[in-house]
Amino acid sequence: MVGLVACGSQSSNYPKGAFLFCTPSSFNYTGDGGQGTVTPSLAAYIGTSPAFSIDIQDHGTDPLTISKVTLNAPGGGFALVPPSPAGLDGGMLTMLNPYPTTPAEAFVSFYFTPTKVGAYTASIVIDSNASVDGGEVIIPISALGVTADAGQFDEPDGG
Prior knowledge:
single chain; about 160 residues; mainly beta; five-stranded mixed beta sheet; four-stranded antiparallel beta sheet; 1 helix; about 5% helix; disordered N terminus; disordered C terminus
């Protein structure tokens, strides 16, 4: 009992108010321009549609209300999946409690579906009542559409 009193609660170290915490904070293609020395972190073959997720949590002391999630993808190639799990009414989950109280986290997902070879950019904007970060988090995305014979997937020869 003395140890619990001395340590305090985990949430006492969190910022006052609601605080939107996202992991990862960005998705970036880190390939090497076709040189074959770096494996891309976000690349997809033309005609495929892999899904990627962003873990969102409230790391503040007050409940977090998600008011809007939008995808800005001027060149296309991306589709947004609303936060999940579903809220109590079956619609989009809009309220997160301070971590680790349930529901303490949700996931925003997106599909990357390239239609042509080349670079794609987008961003996901999450609007909330978070007081620490101004109520808006922008998650930048850069990706690459590739064909099956793209050089960036080749291993270096080594000789």
